[in-house]
From TrEMBL:
This is beta-glucosidase. GO terms for biological process: carbohydrate metabolic process. Pfam families: Glyco_hydro_3_C. Its EC number is 3.2.1.21. Residues 1-110 form the Glycoside hydrolase family 3 C-terminal domain. The keyword Hydrolase applies.
């Protein structure tokens, strides 16, 4: 039994941005996490009621599938070299993750339009 399950999921340069192969467009096919990461979150939630999901991404990700089940969801953006330390300080209660996000985050696909 774990006191806390921390999952860091999200996107990288192969999922979004200028590094998408030519002629493949520039948009992601979905606003959800990649399928293998959706499964990882679902598996963790099936065995623990104390799951924190950290999302590393340069863009919004829909979280409706696990928003009501996770204890917390933290959007990290692409935090750089000190991102791990910042996340540890948040989880340890040394800092309060507050502030304003640069964009609105939809709860469901219908909220996006």
């Amino acid at each position: 039994d774990a006191d806390l399950v921390l999952i860091d999921v999200g996107l990288n340069h192969t999922h979004e941005g200028e590094y998408i192969p030519p002629n493949a467009g520039g948009d992601r096919p979905s606003l959800l996490l990649p399928l293998h990461e959706q499964k990882l979150v679902a598996d963790a939630l099936s065995v623990s009621s104390n799951v924190v999901v950290a999302i590393t991404s340069g863009a919004n990700i829909l979280v409706e599938e696990f928003a009501d089940k996770a204890k917390a969801i933290l959007w990290l953006g692409y935090p750089g070299a000190m991102g791990g330390m910042a996340l540890a300080e948040i989880l340890a209660g040394e800092v309060n993750p507050s502030g304003r996000m640069p964009s609105a985050t939809p709860k469901t696909p219908a909220d996006w339009v």
